[in-house]
Design goal:
Blueprint (H helix, E strand, L loop, with lengths): L1 H4 L4 H14 L2 H14 L4 H16 L34 E7 L5 E6 L4 H24 L7 E5 L4 E6 L5 E6 L5 H22 L1
Helix pairs in contact: 2-3, 2-4, 3-4
Length: 200
């Protein structure tokens, strides 16, 4: 997401380079690390990781190639990922919504109070719960995992699966009726859909 809006973001290229290297995606690792090295050639960790990625790329017999990412240009009518759920803020019980990827990383959304750090922390923690729900559904032959509701001291959370393996998290006050929560989750999923299409 960061690279879609800022194709020259050093930290994003470095982070993606390290992640791709860990996953064995050496072409993508080289591509990202080369972009990072162009901006900060004195960064020793980037140079070391780039050297390792090139060695492994050669050992695997891979021809150097750019990954099939579409970061070079943003769509013409791009919605700010942090503001994608703004149309729901007018509803009193609504506290925020987020789209979380399979690694527990926040793709879009935040809390209504704008606490982005807390949203990222919650996304990372909820990912473990989603994985456990998926395992339990398979183990107990309950069918495909579709959603769950979590009650906390501060809010009620509704989690549901989106296309592409993403998870939608909607936070509401305890007073929100169950039917309203389900309708709001459906509206949030519809708001997230254009963003997911650009991320695909």
């Amino acid at each position: 997401t960061a690279l879609r809006f800022d194709p020259e973001n050093f930290a994003a290229h470095r982070g993606m380079g390290f992640l791709c290297l860990e996953r064995g995606e050496y072409n993508a690792a080289c591509w990202h690390l080369e972009r990072a090295a162009e901006q900060r050639p004195q960064d020793a960790t980037v140079q070391e990781a780039l050297g390792l990625a090139r060695e492994r790329q050669a050992a695997a017999g891979m021809a150097p190639a750019a990954p099939a990412y579409l970061y070079a240009s943003a769509p013409a009518a791009v919605v700010d990922p942090a503001r994608v759920f703004e149309p729901l803020l007018a509803e009193t019980p609504f506290l925020g919504a987020m789209v979380v990827d399979r690694q527990g990383l926040l793709l879009a959304g935040t809390f209504a109070d704008g606490d982005h750090a807390r949203a990222e922390a919650l996304a990372a923690m909820l990912d473990g719960g989603v994985q456990e729900a998926e395992r339990a559904a398979v183990y107990l032959s309950l069918g495909e995992w579709r959603g769950m509701v979590l009650e906390t001291d501060a809010a009620t959370l509704h989690l549901s699966r989106l296309d592409g393996g993403y998870t939608l998290v909607v936070a509401v006050t305890h007073e929100a009726p169950a039917g309203w929560l389900l309708r709001t989750a459906a509206r949030a999923a519809a708001l997230a859909q254009p963003l997911l299409e650009t991320a695909a």
